[in-house]
Amino acid sequence: MQTLGHADRNIDKELAALIANLSQMGEKILAQLSIVEEAIRGAKPEQIEQAKKLDKAINALEMQIEEEVMLFFSRHQPLLIELRFVTFSIKLVLILERMGDLAKNTVRRLNKLGENIRPEIANELQEMTLANKDQLKRSLQMLSSFNAEMTKALTKRDDTIDAHYKKVKKLLNAELDQFPTRARALNQLKQIATNLERSGDFTTDITRILYFIHTGDRLSK
């Protein structure tokens, strides 16, 4: 959110700090998604610890942002756009925290597989992960440099993730029919794909919230 140049510079300073911390949360989720990318290519035990460490940092930022929001309201009487931003920051934090949990869970599940993923399925999961990263990066840019048309376009990017998700489910169902004894591993892969699909939904939610903060209007679904 672009700050508005208040006479009280403390307002702009506190809003900038809030934006920076939200961006930090997003960057750590992007780092988790990079670990997911690596784990799809080849799972390693150390990836779980890396994802858990990032998750702890995300949770710490969540608590810090909540405290900053409470202090902001106690100190200032914000304008309407600032009121929307600070109020909805709590919702953004909850979404980002959930995305971090999903990424950590995905790394765990990839390590539990104990086998290589068939290339056709791995490619679809990689495409889902890359689309998630791209969508989240662009959404984070909207925190400090809002663009209404770009935000509208971003909400449609989730269709790409959904298309890959449908293809993964089709491939996994076909494999389950052919190899029913592999049900456990295939169900793990289904959950991994579901996590990535949900993460895409959350990023779209972030984009819709940012649109509302800046315009006061809600994007139709």
Describe this structure in words.
The longest helix is centred in the middle third of the chain and has 34 residues, at 80-113. It is built from 7 helices and no strands. The model has no long low-confidence stretch (mean pLDDT 91). Helix 4 packs antiparallel against helix 6 (158-178). The protein has one domain (9-215): Methane Monooxygenase Hydroxylase, Chain G, domain 1. It has helices spanning 9-41, 45-75, 80-113, 119-144, 148-155, 158-178, 183-215. It has 221 residues and is mostly helical. The protein is elongated.
Q: How do the SSEs run, as a string of H and E?
A: HHHHHHH
Beta strand count: 0
Class by alpha and beta content: mainly alpha
In CATH terms, the superfamily is Phosphate transport system protein phou homolog 2, domain 2
Low-confidence stretches: none
Residue fraction in strands: under 5%
Mean pLDDT: 91
- Cα radius of gyration in angstroms: 19 Å
List the domain count as a whole number.
Answer: 1
Straight-line N-to-C gap:
23 Å
Put simply, the count of helices is: 7
CATH-defined fold name? Methane Monooxygenase Hydroxylase, Chain G, domain 1
| Main beta-sheet annotation | none
CATH class: Mainly Alpha
Quaternary form: single chain
